[in-house]
Amino acid sequence: MKKVEAIIKPFKLDDVREALSEIGITGMTATEVKGFGRQKGHTELYRGAEYVVDFLPKVKIEVVVPDDQAERCIEAITTAARTGKIGDGKIFVTAVEKVVRIRTGEVDEAAI
Q1: Residue 13 belongs to what H/E stretch?
Q2: Whole-model pTM?
Q3: What is the mean pLDDT of residues 38-61?
């Protein structure tokens, strides 16, 4: 099993959710996060004073999928989240050793 974590622009969340749903991935966790990479934030003007906003709002999506669905999941996220501009985000893929559904006690792929 693989855990796919994607950091995307907030306005792309619905597009990514729909893209994942279309390929049969129904469960996901989305968290509002802040961060920066090459984008390095931006400056804003507030009451006449200029200040730097280092951390930009992003959304972190976490999905656990069977190994054979990982590539399709990555492709769906990439296609749906891409704007072609700096700050589109990143995808991280890690191995998952075990999953347990608390309610039923199912384990691994049966618990996804």
Answers
A1: helix 13-22
A2: 0.84
A3: 75
